[in-house]
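Holo prediction — 2-phosphoglycolic acid.
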Amino acid sequence: MRKKIAAGNWKMNTTFDGGKQLISEIIAGMAANPPEQTSEEMLVVLGTPFITLKKAANLVKNQPQIKIAAQNCYSEEKGAYTGEISVEMIKSTGAEFIIIGHSERREYFNESFEMLAKKVDLTLKYGLTPIFCCGEKLETREAGAHFDLVKRQVEGSLFHLNAEEISKVVIAYEPVWAIGTGVTASPAQAQEMHAFIRKTIADKYGKVLADNITILYGGSVGAKNAEELFSQPDVDGGLVGGASLKAEDFVTIINSFD
Ligand code: PGA
């Protein structure tokens, strides 16, 4: 059965000390209010800034349910790319996940389908788990082209993978119009797109494989709406921005699975 995941994407927030503090608060909050699920059934993933990764990985070393994610990586393995961070460097911190293709990176850093495919390949090569983001802008949805776009995003950066490789990928559907806006996709809209993504994967790789892929919803997930979103049959958890920066809210989200 596929794993459920409550993932936080801290984006460009928290200093080194602030990040340590937030992790301590999340660990304490989970100890006070432990999730019903085991770490086999559900994981908590914290997407911290690069500078915090190693400390974060150390802080959660004895917390089997909590893993650490980077928010990006570079699309080349190593070399003369001043200022960039490679997958191997991320792995050396103890982080186990990498968020790839977030809409902010697609939009502000012009990340193409091909570049994201290379990032996915390197992430898998080093044994880390990609959290691959997809999702449409409002104008695309209004034009009725959202299914087509999400299909092209998934195909364009993932469908070169073989079955064993794609089975290791986590997908996050994040409609751009819902990110940081307070406007959440309705549970029905999320379910509809998640089922569509799963069917897109099933059509190429088969239903058994598709049924084992974790598909997260992202876009204004909060303490108040997580339970209803996570109760949808194809919504396996969330990728949470703003609300993941408040330990109390994030612990409530972690405890929102059935
Ligand atoms: P949000 O961000 O929860 O603040 O809307 C989600 C994301 O961008 O991953």
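READOUT: Strands lie at 4-9, 42-47, 66-70, 97-100, 129-134, 170-173, 215-218, 237-240.
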